[in-house]
């Protein structure tokens, strides 16, 4: 086992607002990692830096041993918290578009995910409800064979009964040796999936530990420990 992400002395500001403060962090590969923290703590900013969308920062950010670059972008799949998907395309057309844009996109997976979630492929994206649109965006992100998946609030508008189904979908279909870094406020619903967690507050890392060490060391769930840490 190695580290898929290594970050040294990362600082990032939006003008005068410091969003990330001297971050040092290593993320072990082959894990489901929760990036957890209150609103405004810097989670989305960190994901955007890893996705290569924010480049104005100081410090070093390496993914799979390489600085953020065209290579790292090719092995990362990023799901923003408000994904943009062309609303006038049907799901079938979206599959075709993604397949032509991304060499690592798997049509088989996208078809499988849409069937699994009962999303009809002849439906136009704009005709779906917000929650169903989020299911489509998540399915498309998961259909790229990647080493690192960055998912920003994947359960945002998705109903509780579908969340377990999606957890199962993620666990059963992820490529070997890939890592998920998941931003979520739905700790309870994702707890069974996460085997490593990072707590972030006011742009600073509070802890980065395996879920088992938190559960055994503190005799409580990650959600319980989170509430204690941030109260
Ligand atoms: N485009 C922007 N311009 C100015 N400040 C920003 C911008 N985006 C984020 N910030 C600020 O940077 C800090 C970190 O924001 P970020 O969106 O990374 O937090 P977050 O942990 O993802 O929050 P949330 O849980 O609410 O989504 C906050 O203080 C926020 O107000």
From TrEMBL:
SMART domains: AAA
Gene3D superfamilies attached to this UniProt entry: P-loop containing nucleotide triphosphate hydrolases
Keyword Transferase attributed: no
Presence of the UniProt keyword Oxidoreductase in the record: no
Tree of life domain: Bacteria
CDD domains assigned: ABC_DR_subfamily_A
Residue ranges occupied by any ABC transporter domain in the UniProt entry: 5-227
Keywords: ATP-binding, Nucleotide-binding, Transport
A GO term, aspect molecular function: ATP binding
PANTHER family for this protein: ABC TRANSPORTER ATP-BINDING PROTEIN ALBC-RELATED
Name the UniProt record assigns to this protein: ABC transporter related protein
